[in-house]
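Re: that chain you flagged

S.,

Sorry for the slow reply, it's been a week of failed gels. I finally had a moment to sit down with the sequence you sent. For the record, here it is as I used it:
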Amino acid sequence: MHCRSCEILTEDELGKLPEVQRVKSFLKSHSIEIVGDFGDRSKEHIAMDLNEVLKQYGYSLSIERQKHRVSWEDFYIALPIAAAFVGLFIFLQKIGVVNLIGSGNIGYGTAFIVGLVASVSTCMAVVGGLVLSVSVNFAKDGDKIRPQGLFHIGRLISFFVFGGVIGVLGSAFQLGSSSAFVLSFIVAIILLILGINLLDIFPWVKRLQPTLPGFITKHISGLKDLNHTITPFLLGTATFFLPCGFTQSMQIYSLSTGSFFSGAFTMLIFALGTLPVLALLSFSSLTIPKSKSGIFFKTAGLVVIFFGLFNLINSLVGFGVISPIFNF
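Prediction finished late last night. Pasting the structure tokens below so you have them in one place:
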């Protein structure tokens, strides 16, 4: 499990089974406690049956606790891929194609790339799970295209509107240079935490990720079981409030802009970054092969750490704590 969203998703899916009376998921120990009436089935048989429910979301259950093992060999491939990816975007920023880094602020290019990374990590876990659930619920009635379209439209609209609202709130509070520095520093730290988490080297880092209260996210998750015409649109709108650390880092930055349109376009472009992978997931049931997932997430983690470090350095430079280190 990667974050609080994984707890919510696994609890929600297993809790709907008729034989399950109570289920509690624990990110800290990567475990799930399940109480129910399973007849005379063995624990192994129960785990196998429950796996059928969770495997479509990329989870698997086992009776014995699995020992955490770091696949260091994945870095032999992940490092050069991440370096090439970072090098490409530094080059594009250097020639002015994307505003990757500038004036201590997060550019739209950065927001888009963070969205891309989010869509294959925490967003893949929770938003992808919601997309699949919506697809299954409405596919029963033969409607396979419209619900997914409404979901993504609702998501893009909500990120634009609520991103603008957050920007206005930042303006209302009249954030000074010190407050802007603190917010940008927090964004950088959150990105570093998320990147280290994706590397899967230090399991305890997962505890540091920011989350929303559980009762809010459970209500949002419950929307997917409503089979109403506008349910996909409402569910896409509600994803703005789901406990994704990447989303929250962009929300904090939007607050620091103090502008409706800056906040709105930052969140919209972030959402557009998540769109390609989530759209593929909607219409083709895209999954990452388990044999390649370690390389995939480590590459994404290294890229996120790059963004975190550069935003941290830019924050310190902008506040006059250190002198500029890079000229791009």
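What I noticed first: The beta strands are 20-26, 31-36, 101-102, 105-106.

Talk soon,
D.
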